[in-house]
Design brief:
Layout: H1 3-68, H2 70-115, H3 119-138, H4 157-163, H5 166-190, E1 193-196, E2 208-214, E3 224-229, E4 231-234, E5 237-240, E6 242-247
Parallel strand pairs: 2-6
Antiparallel strand pairs: 1-4, 3-6, 4-5
Helix pairs in contact: 3-5
Amino acid sequence: MSCVQAFQAIRSSSRSFAARHIVTASLHATGRGITRTRYYSTDTAGSSRESTKDELRVEETEKDEVTVTPEHELLEKLKQKEAEVTDLKGRLRYLQADFLNLQRNSAREKEQTRDFAITKFAGDLLETVDVLALALKSVPASALKPPPSSEPSSSSSSSTLTEKSAEAHLYDLHHGVEITHRLLLQTLFKYHVKPFDPTGEKFDPNRHEALYQAPIPGKEPGSVLECQKTGYTIKDRILRAAQVGVVQDTS
């Protein structure tokens, strides 16, 4: 090999080495750029998260400052008091309604007690009224003749009594019993105790007590044929049911 050829070979090898060095440097430069870009993007995300946390902390701090303010405390207390007032008003209305109902019930019970206080006593007196009514019915009207009017004489009272006939004594006795019966009924009437005779009415088991049934032609079946014992009411209640006979249905 000549000297010229050796010099050319050395030159070409140096050129290839320089090119290889340039390529390697460029690759290193490219890798460094990519790495820096990745690091830069990561740093940006972390800074954004830190900024978000800082903003949340600032908002929480502001909220804490708002809740601590006296105005906010007063508003909260005012809301609580308004809720308490609303609750107390509702309770008061319920209590008022209960009190009004209690007053009405008490007044009604008081009235009923006053009206029906003599129920048992009046029921016992009805037996006496029945006895007086039977005594009056036992004397026929034909046997009752008023005594003849006579001029007062100078005889003694004992002679006047002996001169009265039996018919006159019977008439006076009947008249006295009749007055007693009438006065007793008037006294019961003052306490709202009234008699009723259901003859001819439709039989009502709530007001009438059937003693017998009889088929009577020309009478409506189920109607009251005869009243053997008068019924009595006290106010709107039945004090004693009337004892009656009922027309029987023959169909």
